[in-house]
Amino acid sequence: MLLEPVITRFLCPPRNRYLINRLRSVQLARSGSNTQESILVIRLDAIGDLVLTTPFLKELRRLAPQASITALVSPRTAGILKSSPFVDTVLPYDVPKDVRFSPVKHVQSIVDFAQRHLAHTNWSLAINPRWDEDNHDEAFLCFLSDAKRRVAYSEKVTKKKAFRNAGFDELYTDIIFEKSPPAHDRDRTVGVLKYIFPEAELVLPHLHLSAEDYRYAEEMLKPSVDAKLGRKRVIALGLGASTLRKTWPIESFIELTKLILKDHDSTIVTIGGPGEAAPGEMLAKAFPNNVIHTAGRSSLTQTAALLSRADVYVGNDTGPTHIAAAVSPAVIALFNHPLSANQTHVGSPARFRPLGPHVTVIQPAFPKPPCREACLQSTSHCITNISPAEVYATLLKIIEKSSQIAKTSR
After folding, report:
1. Which CATH number belongs to the domain containing residue 61 in this structure?
2. b/e string for 223-245 if b means 16 or more Cβ within 10 A?
3. Residues 254 and 280: beta-carbon distance below 8 Å
4. Is the Cβ–Cβ distance between 43 and 57 less than 8 Å?
5. How far apart (Å, rounded) are the C-alpha atoms in residues 239 and 284?
6. Which residue has the higher pLDDT, 30 or 78?
7. Which of 216, 233, 251, 320 is the most exposed place for a label (fewest CB within 10 A)?
8. 93-146, pLDDT tens digit by residue?
9. Are 320 and 328 in contact (CB under 8 A)?
């Protein structure tokens, strides 16, 4: 039986009950013989979410230094943890697209994965740190790990989660009931760790990169070095986002680049995945002597290395912006969520702003009609209330401040 996505949303409780009952009847062939404490952390969503989970992983490693820690993540984000000392194993998981709307095939794909990758370890602890609804099989995989303790936020923390994840609480051994107004996602994630280790602290996201990644960045940035004047200022631009409503138009990025190059001899670096290749090419064609086009051509860690060499990064509410916040000297994050709108909304920077030592968030002051509590349009809409001149003014302040610091440190 194939269920269309819209139908599936309205059938969540009975579908969940079917999946849970099927999973409860499964008997995996278990052969785990390890004596070392083994911890499974499941985080299967997007790039930014995993970056915001690195504080959790860093603290988990500090508080359980002898444990073997496995991070179960999406194949699209696995590279972020490639060189991380916080985990011992990175295990990619993704539901095959052809089974997503068939409950029978869906269960079988989860069971097959658990048999291959989870059944051969005696897990002492499995953690799902996500506060919002689980749309990526975290609860099912946590249950099939058969860990002695399986910890997560309750399905009842929000009305939406109570409906979408009905019945999931019974798959865990430890349920955290936290109904206070939504906090930042990093704080929620570490909150799960505090439940287990009360001494856990809130720290900033941190990424570890390899020497190869840094060599790649240096090679790509060679055009930014002038034989007489030395290295030019490098400004990275994150052109894309997961949805068009979060995307500042490419025309605005082009106008911003004009303002930058009018007053500053700088190198512009385009950042992003394959979806940003086309707008990156547009920018490169508009400024052929000043743009290094890397969007769609670099891995996540190579992108991080490039961002670590940038003087300033400007980008949308997207994964690379979270990466930039963790590694770049200065970040300007463009959010489509209006400042006057509901700050508890999932699109608000109050909940998902990039975290780093030098992050500036720019939001439209007010929504564009007909939006009110959040931008709900399918195209670039409220975010177009952010002007290139406003972004450039913020960028200019950062450049001037860094120049003053450089002078005083000589």
Report:
1. 3.40.50.2000
2. ebeeeeeeebbbbbbbbbbebeb
3. no
4. no
5. 12
6. 78
7. 251
8. 987 777 667 778 888 888 889 999 999 999 999 999 999 899 888 999 999 999
9. no
The CA-CA-CA angle for residues 64, 65, 66, to 5°, reads 95
The verdict on 218 and 74 lying in the same domain is: no
Phi, psi of 62 (to 5 degrees): -65, -40
- What's the rounded Cα separation, in Å, for the pair 141 and 113? 9
Q: How many domains does the chain have?
A: 2
| 329: containing domain | 211-408
Q: Are residues 156 and 248 in the same domain?
A: no
What's the predicted TM-score (pTM) here? 0.90
User: Same structural domain for residues 172 and 303?
Assistant: no
Q: For residue 191, which of 153, 147, 135, 142 has the smallest C-alpha distance? A: 153
Is 352 among the domain residues?
yes
Q: Which of 233, 249, 228, 239 is nearest to 281 (CA)?
A: 239
State the DSSP H helix or E strand holding residue 163, giving kind and residue range, or none if neither: helix 159-164
* Structure tokens, 281: 């090419």
Shortest CA distance to 300 belongs to which of 267, 272, 330, 280?
A: 272
Cα separation, 377 vs 379, in Å, equals 6
Q: What is the DSSP string of 81-126?
A: GTT-TT-SEEEE----GGGTT-HHHHHHHHHHHHHHHTTTS--SEE
DSSP secondary-structure letter at 49? H
Of 133, 163, 196, at which residue does a domain stop? Answer: 196
Q: What are the tokens at 98? A: 């052809």
